[in-house]
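stuck on whats below:

***
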Amino acid sequence: MKLATYKLGGSERIGVVHGNDSMLFDLGAAAARRGLDGKSFASMLALIDSGERALDATRELFSRFAIEQDLSVPVSDADLSAPLPEPRQMRDGMSFPLHIRQAPRGMRRLMARIANDADELARIEAEPLPELAEVYRRQPIYYITNRFSVRGPDSTVQWPRYSKVMDYEMEFGIVTKNRAANIPAAKAREHIFGFTIFNDFSARDVQSGEMKGLLGPAKGKSFDGGNVLGPWIVTADDMPDPYNLTMEVRVNGEVRSRSTSAGMLFSFEEMIAYISRDETLMPGEFIGSGTVGNGCGLELGRFLGDGDEVELDVEKIGVLRNRVRQQA
């Protein structure tokens, strides 16, 4: 089941995506027609908080009322929001070995180009790709980012004024359910509500300076609209194998890279087990996979320009589309 958050007639709603991803079934309106308390369908967080009974009710409502045309609207007539507009927490991992190995060299290459240092650039290009640092195999690595800067599909991301180098990052991730701590990896699947796509837009020139402080990114990642989720959530029961999905990046219709979700150093289940060690994992958190190999301009040496349209296409989920605009 695919679940979306959208705005229609000035109000925010949640719905089931159907009709080959072309229609939205209004869960709140269907619940009212059924005579149910609509609190569980007021928002995606409310649905997640209401647990399995609310998901069962969602399936029952859709099965019973899907044929009633007045309860559905075309996706093209609605304003899709991020499926989870304000997660309770946002954590983003580093899970794909090729990206981890290539990104530092890409950052050094970018700085050499900014400095117009041809000799340094030649040295960097001649170096072999480094081996993966042992720390990435020892434990999941992640950082916490700004949960209030989330935007959704087809939004225009405003390029921060303090940056000259804007980049996209192809990721996917999970939305959590059920509050718990010290979750064994073997039971962590019970805490995955669903899967969505994540474009972790990055101000690379700013990030480069911040990373020298050894505390991770700040303004290189945290700016209004820089965390994009969507276009919807695919519930966990409809994603039996999230670790073998084809993934593609397109910029202005041109394929920039093709990759796969296979080969994560740690599964989402293992990440949940690590994160929840003596820490309560809340329902409605987002955990990102980290960028797939060749899934960003930093690795390819090709960044974004004003007005570029970025599409992240993930098998079984959909296409997350956004445009970037430079500000005056």
Q: What stands out?
A: The CA atoms of residues 96 and 292 lie 5 Å apart.
